[in-house]
């Protein structure tokens, strides 16, 4: 097909478009007026190609971006779902501990506990179905050193059916050197849900960890972080050193002490125990510590059977 355009003095003829060798020639109506031939087929073909490419790339790039966004949303949803499932699976094993002091005198003995003063709160976790509860020594230190007979320890938890109840916690064993203590509650036929024990021997810096406890009395609070460091040394309540402590940035505030530190599978890898606080605020600075579960596993059976750690028996 040839298209001819008539001009006043110039005749322009367009030859059929060919990408490989396209030529637009403009010539005068006679040989004297022919001055030059402009060949720009390659440029025209390139421009046409780029235009077509842009028209095709925009929807492709948009589709890729949407697909990537969808994948990120699905990853986030999967991560959130894992966190939710982990909390639901493990929170029933975590207990809320209140350290209370009974009034010295009371005219109404039946309401003596209602008039009790709450002196502190903490956390713990169910060790076995017999009602043994593991916590920090410093959480129940006042009860451990009570000379007046007025100190009490209330343990609130849910059974395997999800029913919440509260019982007095009785001291079974103490290990101030490692800031550990074991309490015993009466289960009265209720089925308890013990924690799943993990190991701290193969932990790696950077892996995810989860802390469940009762900071400032807010029960069943979940905080998430990573293992920030291993093999730390922190002071125990009696001034000795707790070795091989786990450092984490998962928030551990007042009331979290004694609760479990968990890995991504819901296995207990430590007992939350201490934090560096911001000066003047009492808030966690992000440098928090847990007693490694391997130390707990070695110690707790002796506390249950003998009331003291193995090293203290002789």
UniProtKB/TrEMBL annotation:
Keyword Glycoprotein part of the UniProt annotation: no
One Pfam family per UniProt: Trypsin_2
Coiled coil: 62-89
Gene Ontology BP annotations: photosystem II repair; proteolysis
Keyword Hydrolase: yes
Source domain of life: Eukaryota
Gene3D superfamilies documented for this protein: Trypsin-like serine proteases
UniProt entry keywords in alphabetical sequence: Coiled coil, Hydrolase, Protease
GO MF annotations, alphabetized: serine-type endopeptidase activity
GO cellular component labels: chloroplast thylakoid lumen
Family membership noted in the UniProt record: Belongs to the peptidase S1C family.
Name assigned to this protein: Protease Do-like 5, chloroplastic
């Amino acid at each position: 097909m040839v298209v001819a355009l008539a001009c006043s003095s110039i005749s322009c003829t367009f030859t059929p478009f060919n990408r490989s060798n396209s030529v637009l020639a403009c010539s005068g109506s006679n040989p004297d007026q022919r001055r030059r031939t402009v060949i720009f087929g390659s440029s025209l073909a390139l421009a046409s190609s780029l235009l077509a490419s842009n028209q095709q790339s925009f929807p492709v790039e948009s589709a890729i971006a949407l697909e990537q966004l969808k994948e990120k949303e699905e990853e986030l949803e999967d991560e959130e779902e894992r966190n939710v499932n982990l909390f639901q699976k493990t929170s029933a094993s975590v207990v809320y501990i209140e350290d209370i002091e009974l009034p010295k005198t009371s005219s109404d003995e039946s309401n003596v506990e209602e008039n009790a003063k709450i002196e502190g709160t903490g956390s713990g976790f169910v060790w076995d179905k017999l009602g043994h509860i593991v916590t920090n020594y410093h959480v129940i230190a006042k009860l451990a050193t009570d000379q007046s007979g007025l100190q009490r320890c209330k343990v609130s938890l849910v059974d395997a059916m999800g029913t919440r109840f509260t019982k007095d916690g009785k001291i079974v064993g103490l290990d101030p050197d490692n800031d550990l203590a074991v309490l015993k509650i009466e289960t009265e036929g209720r089925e308890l849900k013990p924690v799943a024990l993990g190991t701290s021997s193969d932990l790696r810096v950077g892996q995810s960890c989860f802390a469940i406890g009762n900071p400032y009395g807010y029960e069943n609070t979940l905080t998430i972080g990573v293992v920030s460091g291993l093999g730390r040394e922190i002071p125990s309540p009696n001034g000795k050193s707790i070795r091989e402590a786990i450092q984490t940035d998962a928030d551990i505030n007042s009331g979290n002490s004694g609760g479990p530190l968990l890995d991504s599978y819901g296995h207990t890898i430590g007992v939350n125990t201490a934090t560096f606080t911001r000066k003047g605020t009492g808030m966690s600075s992000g440098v928090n510590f847990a007693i490694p579960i391997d130390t707990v596993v070695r110690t707790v059976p002796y506390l249950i059977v003998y009331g003291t750690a193995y090293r203290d028996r002789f």
